[in-house]
Queue: 2 jobs
Job 1
Amino acid sequence: MLSARALSPGAPLQILDAPLPRPQSGQVLVQVKACGVCRTDLHIMDGEIPACRYPVTPGHEVVGIVHEGGTRFARGARIGIPWLAWTCGQCEYCTSGRENLCERACFTGCHVDGGYAEYVVADERYCLALPERYGDAEAAPLLCAGLIGYRCYGFAGAAQRIGLYGFGAAAHVLAQVARADGRRVFAFTRGGDSAGQRFALECGAHWAGGADEMPPQPLDAAIIFAPVGALVPQALRAVKKGGRVICGGIHMSDIPSFPYAWLWGEREIVSVANLTRADGERFMSVAARLPIRTAVRTYRLEQANEALGDLRAGRLSGAAVLVPGG
Ligand SMILES: [Zn+2]
Ligand SMILES: [Zn+2]
């Protein structure tokens, strides 16, 4: 089977012919129909995720068909494979409803091979059933961009005015969910990115501007999806007293120092890490209920490096998705 492998940090992916993986007990062998391209995959390629194992096949937004193995899903069923691949079930985090923080967690496309391939194996307990209303490519971005965005949204609590910094795959899904909940979304893009700002407004944002601008009204919460540490003090200045700044990325450049006065007033900064299986179930039921429009650009598996290059350069509106044989 064809797979796109990260052999070592700092090198482009290699398109290789690899043997078909064999499912062990409790695992399913899945034929990949679509796999989303996430910013985390760039961090893995660049060697910025210290726990990552090389060589590894990236890809943790996998939509595919159960080919064999396992007992939970019927053969031929369409399932999703997300970032969380395995947890120990025994550590203090696993036993307190926070398996996303498990001390020994394994992640798809990081510790175990992911979906930049024609086939992948996965522990069936961590796979998700997918709402039927989405096509394969359209469902892929729900599995990380959608899911992590939704977990961040939970950290925003009852915030009515929510800022989203970095308007890519995660924000374009979350803007639609928040809008359907009656919240107001303020979208922040790279300065001068008028196409990105137009896209944000199309996705339901109430206002869109550059990341260096102040919103027309103070925000109750801000979620940062862009991997830019300088946005943390920027977002703190945009939230009102008691407001929260939520960092949704797995990696960020250093946060510059800033005056304590910007944090004063019980403002908070938190990070959101990974996801739990319960997050996955909750978000998929939201996605089944709401007609979320995912903007995708599809690439053949052999074009994985091109897709990653477009993501890195900010050339995408929405999400890149690899389609094996497409
Ligand atoms: Zn654990
Ligand atoms: Zn991701």
Job 2
Amino acid sequence: MNDSSNKKKIAIQLIAQVNEFPPLPAVVNKILQVTADPESSLDKLARIVEAEVGLSAAVIKLANSPFFGLSREVSSIQHALVVLGMEEVRNMVLAKAMFNTFTSYRKKGDRINALWGHSFHTAMAAQVIADKMGCEDSGLFVGGLIHDIGKMVIFLAFSGESLLKVYGDTEKLDDSKKEIAFLGLNHEDLGRLLIKSWLFPEALQMAVGYHHSPESAPNFQRYPLVVRLADTLALLTVVGIEGEEGASLCLPFLDPPLSELYAKNGLPLTLNTIKNLFNEAQKTFAKADDLVSLLSG
Ligand SMILES: [Fe+2]
Ligand SMILES: [Fe+2]
């Protein structure tokens, strides 16, 4: 079999794998809808979460964990919403529901755990960037959280040995090229297919599908733009911002087309602004690490 027909076969298998993925609990879509509507009340969200007994108990447990450091015990979802706010509770519920969906696939432990860590860092960084842009859309946290979900599919589909051949020891920003070379399609396309099958809103499909090429996004360009930068801030934690590798991660943001697109969306970037955003995001990363270990427990 020649190389291109082999790749085509792998790509078809991967897409089939996407179709076999367990559906996300319906509660996730309901929450995305309710929290996207500015007219929605806390009551409405509380009723949706309370209807899911397991999820609701997990969220109350999280709300009472040292992570939030609350002085009084939280005893209900209603109460959690009052003391923590709609956004925190929504993020916790979504993170827990996504985590649960993937827990039955824990076989590739290390790689998957590292990817969750990276995903939470990206989610936290996306929120920092969204705040800087004066953008109140909290869907950007979710965009960051799920941006590399296509990689989950690839990790679950292949043995550790094959993954080593595709990615080497660790994943990098140019992984999409390696994926195309080995698998015939990349994690952005796979991720977009998966969340489309979960009926996620188009803005999130754009965030996932174009997080390495926001300039090509046909709609909701702000989403992939925020996630592209958040992804980089998360990677900078690993490689450091001062060295050569860090500098090469920052460079694409300083030239067109990216520099123009960020400026157009209210976030003109210089090396200094990127450094400041990185420092701000860094402060939230310890919180993200705590959240990952709480969710895995
Ligand atoms: Fe990615
Ligand atoms: Fe990433």
